[in-house]
């Protein structure tokens, strides 16, 4: 029987070998889809530990990147016993780094974590113009639009993009993330929520759906 607490802690400690051993042994027992979903939640709880340690300064960006890769690897092990994933998509997130900013580490971490949480993520990449966000949003009708930026200038690009999205009548929740975002910046931009922590950002998206 899979010890969920041990699995959660192994993910939180970034012990890749332990996580894989636990999950491969679990899959060999031919668990039900419901049991596999519980294992996914345990892995996600481990990511919450990672996020907390990053906020405390005990983990660094490299650890976050590795954690995102570890979570993706864990989900891939579980996929054969998770059944038809098309039926459990939590929602669609349209994601991109805004115009004028070329950073993508935080965006990519958020993408990995969101996909592991059951979201379909459409990643537009970096330096994404407002019209590109709008065109794709009209095509795929996402529940959530995520905008990332590291540079201070990204705040004005986010504001411009949010205004364009609302003017186009696109009905989606908007979350922004990155080093320069604050409560004040979120209000200025016109976004629904903000985060500087990828794990927290996924939790917010889960609340919305």
Automatic annotation (TrEMBL):
A single Gene Ontology CC term: cytosol
Lineage: Bacteria, Bacillati, Bacillota, Clostridia, Eubacteriales
InterPro entries xref list: Cbl-bd_cap (IPR003759), Cobalamin-bd (IPR006158), Cobalamin-bd_sf (IPR036724), Met_Synthase/Corrinoid (IPR050554), Meth_synthase_dom (IPR036594)
Organism the protein comes from: Acetobacterium paludosum
Recorded coiled-coil stretches: none
Gene3D superfamilies for this protein: Cobalamin-binding domain, Methionine synthase domain
UniProt entry keywords in alphabetical sequence: Cobalt, Metal-binding
Domain B12-binding: 90-209
Name of the protein in question: Cobalamin-binding protein
Keyword Protein transport (UniProt): no
Gene Ontology MF annotations: cobalamin binding; metal ion binding; methionine synthase activity
GO biological processes: homocysteine metabolic process; tetrahydrofolate metabolic process
A UniProt-annotated Pfam family: B12-binding_2
B12-binding N-terminal domain mapped to chain residues: 1-90
């Amino acid at each position: 029987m899979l010890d969920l607490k041990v699995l959660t802690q192994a993910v939180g400690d970034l012990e890749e070998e332990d996580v894989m051993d636990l999950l491969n042994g679990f899959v060999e027992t031919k668990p039900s889809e419901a049991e596999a979903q519980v294992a996914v939640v345990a892995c996600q709880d481990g990511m919450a530990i990672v996020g907390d340690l990053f906020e405390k300064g005990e983990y660094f960006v490299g650890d976050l990147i590795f954690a995102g890769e570890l979570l993706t690897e864990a989900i891939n092990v579980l996929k054969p016993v998770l059944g038809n994933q098309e039926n459990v998509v939590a929602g669609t997130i349209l994601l991109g780094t805004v115009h004028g900013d070329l950073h993508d580490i935080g965006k990519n971490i958020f993408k990995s974590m969101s996909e592991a949480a059951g979201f379909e993520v459409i990643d537009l990449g970096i330096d994404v113009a407002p019209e590109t966000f709008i065109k794709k949003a009209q095509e795929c009708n996402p529940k959530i639009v995520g905008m990332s930026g590291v540079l201070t200038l990204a705040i004005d690009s986010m504001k411009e993009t949010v205004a364009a999205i609302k003017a186009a009548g696109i009905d989606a929740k908007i979350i922004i993330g990155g080093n320069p975002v604050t409560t004040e910046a979120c209000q200025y931009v016109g976004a629904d929520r903000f985060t500087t922590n990828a794990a927290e950002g996924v939790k917010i998206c889960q609340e919305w759906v």
